[in-house]
Amino acid sequence: MKLPIMTALPNERRGYVDGPDGQIHYRSFGEGPAVLLVHQAPWSSLQFRHVLPVIAHAGFHAIAIDLPAHGMSDPPQQPSIECYGENLAVLLKALGIGSAILLGHRGGGLAAGRLAAVHPDLVTGLILDNAPFYSSEERASRIGKFSDNQDISQDGSHLTDRWRWVRATGDPDWSDETLHISVLTYFLHGPWKEHGHSVIPKYDFRADVPKIRCPTLVVASRTDPIYSWGKQIVEARPDWAYAELPGGPGMVLDRAEEWNALVITYLRQFSDL
Hints:
This protein has eleven helices and eight strands. The chain has about 270 residues and is of the alpha/beta class. Helix 2 packs across helix 3 and helix 5 crosses helix 6. The mean pLDDT is about 90.
């Protein structure tokens, strides 16, 4: 039975640490080797609501962050993937965690990868779950193309308009629960310019990939529109592991059992559990 959708999850601990631009909110489950999960834009730590308790039950300290300007974290002065990566470092240090396995989904994978590239001492393993891998031409073509309409309609139709837009343009396999979380988290982050999707094409992940030294798994979901990037990443880093999932970008919510089976296998490899 799925949990009802709510801000707090049963048995989780929630907290804040002071970051470079304000408070960073996080969720925490369990004890053991640390695993820090980083959500996609413009979502929040709620994206991992079905997998945090399972990862904890497998023997890990599962932590999910709200990136700056997402969820319940404060907005940064200058949003960027580099900024997000530094906030991950601040969170780990504030929690007294010497190093962690990082898992990032889509744009969250870029933030996790950035941390691994510039703070290798903090990252013992990396899982890139459908991370973008734009070429310089693709990046240039996408800069400034993401609108962020946070206008509130008097009759509440801004919510149903967003629902219809996501249903029409998002993963057709998304459940109503996943769509609901998508809409709620979109409006929760507020009208902060250059958040999430807008900063992704400004970051050159291809320049940081050669700097990453920790064991890394690249996950590609077969019906995700960015599926092909997974193979491009391992072509650039043939020493990295590669695995595929059968669904699309909603697997962490809608097909959590399959997602967990793959991810926990590699978490154990990276931590020697």
